[in-house]
Amino acid sequence: MSNVFTFSIGRKLIMSLMGLFLCAFLLVHLGINLLLIFCDTTEPFNIAANFMASNVVIKVFEIGLFGGILLHIIYAVILTIKNWFARTVGYKVGNNQQTSFFSKYMVHTASIIGIFLILHLMDFYVKAKFLGGATSVTYEDGKTFHDLGALVIARFHIGWVVMVYIVALLGLGFHLIHGFQSAFQTIGLNHPVYTPIIKGLGLFYSVVVAAGFMAIPIVVYFFK
Amino acid sequence: MDLTLKIWRQENAAAKGRFETYKVTNISPDCSFLEMLDILNQQMIENQITLPVCFDNDCREGICGMCGLYINGRPHGPDKGVTTCQLHMRKFKNGDTIVIEPWRARPFPVIKDLVVDRSAFDKIIEAGGYISVSTGGVPDANSIPVPKKKADVAMDAAACIGCGACVASCKNASAMLFVSAKVSHFANLPQGKVEAKERVKNMVAKMDELGFGNCTNTGACEAECPKEISISHIARMNREFFAAKIL
Predict the structure, then answer these.
(1) Which of B8, B21, B104, B131 is least buried, going by the fewest C-beta atoms within 10 A?
(2) CB contact under 8 A, B73 and A91
(3) How many CB atoms lie within 10 A of CB B122?
């Protein structure tokens, strides 16, 4: 077991497990963010966001999350470099039609997501946590929270920020369409009945996540 | 049919190759692709233009796995589920330009023109693609119970002829479809099952060592495989590998 992750398939396993873990995280992230556009005030969002920032269990998950992202990236880089070395002389006529569109551009969509992730963390996570970018707000019950909602709404009133988010989230959606079902195949779960269901579920999940996250900057920009 | 051929020419493994353009005329649509190349070579020999084009071939009935040309961006050409020798010129149109390249992968170096060295596959087989336990003589029919489902899966996997189209078509030059076909073939049968763990570990280790790429589940291999071997075998190989390594 000790050296399983030095093998191609072991490395792929890490990538797929971390990928699925990140998929689960996205759902939680999306659920909390949607509070911003479905509630009249930013209060429910602020309470949820502050809970996520202060709860001990969530803090452990937070470390796991950053570890997961890092592992996913590190193993992706290792595997991709090995893949490039596996074909040093390319074809004159490339094979372009026989695979799904999304599976061919995983490195490209990953790069978009990677760059976006840095911007996104600087925008909210770093600003609120380390730079004191969030003002305080006190609700009726006397409890005081960081006003993350106001931070988000202010940010999403800038046109170019909204555009960057839309492009990046399209990249995320494309990445997920292949990534979600691909993870199951790598783990070894391929079945004549369940694999088509997983693929359908993956498409549904990708559309929901990408469209759900995209709705937030758009709705905030136009209506909040 | 009159055709323009752009063919990769390379004198030897060390030489720098280049594409050369040739014209062939009066090709019958019923000609196989390799017969068309035979006609081209015949012309070259008779007219003493240049040395004939080297390409691998043997049985010319789609079972030996020797032939394999990358034709217009697809291994074994535009037809589905056939090898290059089973491809017919009726799949092309009069006046077409056809680009013919060798398999491209670092573990498959070009030896000459369109011929590549596929002994990397032999090395993977040597690492575990066999049964070494004594299975005795030919058993009576049905004396070893094998469920129909498993027998079918094993048979589908055993259809692999080791041509290397999976590696050629994969954007990562991964050999996982080939290796998984061998792993899956044996792992589904009682005679192969006893050594399944050692087999998958050794074959995967050899595959990695030889410098093949890593599968990204694009499915290009199963789309191009002349024996239409499914990537479900790759999932089975992964399961076998995890069971052998982790459990």
Answers:
(1) B21
(2) yes
(3) 12
As a dihedral over the C-alpha atoms of residue A168, residue A172, residue A178, residue A183, rounded to 10 degrees, the angle is: 140
Q: Hey, are the CB atoms on B216 and A83 less than 8 Å from each other?
A: yes
Same domain, B15 and B50: yes
Residues from A in contact with B at Cβ < 8 Å: 1, 4, 7-13, 79, 82-83, 85-96, 98-100, 103-104, 106, 178, 181-182, 185-192, 195
| Residue B110: DSSP 8-state | E
Q: Per residue in B127-152, pLDDT tens? A: 999 999 998 888 888 888 999 999 99
Q: What is the ipTM of this complex?
A: 0.92
Q: What are the tens digits of pLDDT across the range B105-117?
A: 999 999 999 999 9
Host domain of residue B96: 3-101
What structural domains does chain A harbor? 4-84+100-223 (1.20.1300)
Site from B214, B215, B222 to mutate, A interface, most A CB atoms within 10 angstroms: B214
B205 and B175: one domain? Answer: yes
Residues of chain A with Cβ-Cβ distance to B75 below 8 Å are 95
Q: What is the mean pLDDT of chain A?
A: 92
Same domain, yes or no: B22 and B83: yes
| Three-class DSSP category at A142 | coil
